[in-house]
Amino acid sequence: MNTADLGLPVDVPSTALFTDQYELTMLQAALKAGTAERRSVFEVFTRRLPEGRRYGVVAGTGRVLDAIENFRFDADVLGFLRERNIVDEQTLARLADYRFSGDVWGYPEGEVYFPGSPIMRVEGTFAECVLLETVILSILNHDSAIAAAASRMSSAAGDRPLIEMGARRTHELAAVAASRAAYLGGFASTSDLAAGFRYGIPTVGTSAHAFTLLHDRERDAFRAQVDSMGRGTTLLVDTYDVAEAVRTAVEIAGPELGAVRIDSGDLLLVAHRVRQQLDELGATGTKIIVTSDLDEYAIASLAAAPVDAYGVGTQLVTGSGHPTCSMVYKLVARAGSADPGAALVPVAKKSTGGKTSIGGRKWAARRLDEYGVAEAEVVGTGAVPAELADRQLLVELVKGGDVVAREPLDAVRDRHVAARGNLPLSATQLSRGEPVIPTEYVNGRSGNRAGA
Amino acid sequence: MNTADLGLPVDVPSTALFTDQYELTMLQAALKAGTAERRSVFEVFTRRLPEGRRYGVVAGTGRVLDAIENFRFDADVLGFLRERNIVDEQTLARLADYRFSGDVWGYPEGEVYFPGSPIMRVEGTFAECVLLETVILSILNHDSAIAAAASRMSSAAGDRPLIEMGARRTHELAAVAASRAAYLGGFASTSDLAAGFRYGIPTVGTSAHAFTLLHDRERDAFRAQVDSMGRGTTLLVDTYDVAEAVRTAVEIAGPELGAVRIDSGDLLLVAHRVRQQLDELGATGTKIIVTSDLDEYAIASLAAAPVDAYGVGTQLVTGSGHPTCSMVYKLVARAGSADPGAALVPVAKKSTGGKTSIGGRKWAARRLDEYGVAEAEVVGTGAVPAELADRQLLVELVKGGDVVAREPLDAVRDRHVAARGNLPLSATQLSRGEPVIPTEYVNGRSGNRAGA
């Protein structure tokens, strides 16, 4: 099947269309003005964390690399741009040849970040860098928002596994990216088959209330499920009366019953009752999974309850109150001419009324205290102080247009655990607060010509 | 280019993977139990509107129809399910032949809805209907959330056009659906090229701060833009000093300057100052576009300001505080046997602790008062009262597996304006409140065998 037949926006033939029109009109104007080839440095950063959050989580980097690699304007796209008269023929010719040939550095995926952290830096000609703004921000803003929520939930859950089950609460393809972000933020599995297919994330699932309602008696449904999936399955026990369902479940599956799932009611109370009942019935190994409108606070409040796993939907895929980050992609330095050797000049918006930036190509390092715990995010221009040289955060991701830093999702997941574990303990407190470490700016002598 | 090379989740070969695993395991268990062929009725509804909202907006219906039509399990997908051992061979064989052959009725896209409105009804065998749950909910929950925010913003904006520019704040493909939902909710255009490509939505865009910063002087940037795009373009005037930028803009473009854009600061104050300055400079026809972190409240607060158009990003694509709806897909009736002629039995979850539903296949009608204004959403089972017969809301969307109700997006957009206009005036008040009309339930005699 041709994906163009899907009737979904998946027939977009290239990531190049995930772009705001003004990126193209800026290119056209710069080409005409002779400024399009000026060497330019764009940085992705955020001026603040979502209110009350202690740290951010970098997520989506791997998807950004894929998007850059596939950012091409094919005949269909060029035909669309021509037909709509969006840019002129000179610009179309330039787009037809587009291939990013610059460099990208960034925080490795899974790292934590803070206000002002230069999360990603894109360097090349203005022409090639400006076009990437929209797709880079779409991916990082979405995925990082989900990963931040996932990270808080996984802190709250401790050793108990978290199941991502929010596909039905968000756009069908955002759901796939959300599963990926949840996994890197500490979730164990997903209900979303597309996420399993695309990213190899473990998938889980057994049955819904509809399955119980389909059958004439709850007992028939349980019997059918155990016959089909074995005694190790998870039976959903809150369609009618929970106590009766638990009794029936153990009667049918025996004490080898894998788990019961509770999807409504006062979970703390019900979990305790169900645990006691299971134990009395001899099903001491049967687990309890809860899945009703959980967020990190609800998960934390169940820490003392006899719960073995959590399923999280809505609050995960909507970033638990913060469905996007406020990452921006800003020109921070550019050459004064199109000469490839021209010096870079730091630039920044300066208007009053907020949205100011700090110009210049930046480095970042995380300073540790004597116990090896992070104590500051240090961001600077110019030379990196010697004592921070081995604590630098940016790594090379794309070199001369070639992706050089692909990595498996499990490595990203491990990195996040390590990065979070290196923060002060209060990072994982759920209560609202300031970023757990401050961001310090160091304005060194101009090092804008130097590599990172 | 093969979209499988995109490295994005667009290489999902079918909408059938946008599915929670339990839909498939339920199918397997039902096949084994002999209950998979029981005729079943599933309904999509929501138990409540997002807090404070007066009405909901049905959006995504057209995308759902596409998703159903393309819901197929091809060799790649079946291979994945087999390799992961998700379902058995009997179930795989069934999936290989899957094609929805049932009926779908629903509120036409663009209609308003209320708690309990049967927004969509899917009828067929349990086997064919249960699998569609996840993708239907993903689409409707996402698109309706965006459309509801768009509708409130367009009420607040009155006759002033709204530009959707939130692509960078959400998943790159969710952004395309968000543009579509925004357009049907009353927006005039989008910055997102993919939305223009896929749905024919008008696209707009001129330049960002980066373009001004690229040039040695703001004047050079303005000159370059006017040279490239003509005097009718929109110049961004808040990179440095707004008053100076406006002076320079009119100096370069003359009074024919199309518009200036303000993206930071106190918009009410700045808009007044800029309007006065433009008028003094003779640029009385030059428009003012504002674009800084707007939501429906900010738009309303600018009603008396000399603003000609609004650009909205973050708050649109995140549903202005409500990024998802709480629509569910519930089995409300099913046959007592696999006999195609067997009577339908209403079913509903009955456990205490919330999440209860009303069983039975439902009709819905909007009752009008003597002035033709909506006064109640009437939802019932059984026969439709004669006085409501011509006010019924559900229309046939899929008949025997064939989509029968495709329509252009502009028709959907017009329908929304009409539907909203038929509500009591308080519907468009932005302040928090109850649903603007109540939902009344009518339990008629059993009509579960009858057509809609």
Automatic annotation (TrEMBL), chains A, B:
Entry comment on modification after translation: Transiently phosphorylated on a His residue during the reaction cycle. Phosphorylation strongly increases the affinity for substrates and increases the rate of nicotinate D-ribonucleotide production. Dephosphorylation regenerates the low-affinity form of the enzyme, leading to product release.
Key words, A-Z: Glycosyltransferase, Ligase, Phosphoprotein, Pyridine nucleotide biosynthesis, Transferase
Catalytic activity: 5-phospho-alpha-D-ribose 1-diphosphate + nicotinate + ATP + H2O = nicotinate beta-D-ribonucleotide + ADP + phosphate + diphosphate
Enzyme Commission designation: 6.3.4.21
EC category: ligase
Pathway noted in the entry: Cofactor biosynthesis; NAD(+) biosynthesis; nicotinate D-ribonucleotide from nicotinate: step 1/1
Superkingdom: Bacteria
Record-linked SUPFAM superfamilies: Nicotinate/Quinolinate PRTase C-terminal domain-like (SSF51690), Nicotinate/Quinolinate PRTase N-terminal domain-like (SSF54675)
Domain Nicotinate/nicotinamide phosphoribosyltransferase: 163-330
Xref: InterPro entries: Aldolase_TIM (IPR013785), N/Namide_PRibTrfase (IPR041525), NAPRTase_N (IPR040727), Nic_PRibTrfase-Fam (IPR007229), Nic_PRibTrfase_pncB (IPR006405), Nicotinate_pribotase-like_C (IPR036068)
Family matches, as Gene3D superfamilies: Aldolase class I, nicotinate phosphoribosyltransferase
Residue intervals of the Nicotinate phosphoribosyltransferase N-terminal domain: 17-141
One Gene Ontology MF term: nicotinate phosphoribosyltransferase activity
Family statement drawn from the similarity comment of this UniProt entry: Belongs to the NAPRTase family.
Protein purpose: Catalyzes the first step in the biosynthesis of NAD from nicotinic acid, the ATP-dependent synthesis of beta-nicotinate D-ribonucleotide from nicotinate and 5-phospho-D-ribose 1-phosphate.
NCBIfam families for this protein: NAPRTase_put, PRK09243.1-5, PRK12484.1
Protein name in the entry: Nicotinate phosphoribosyltransferase
Species assigned in the record: Streptomyces lanatus
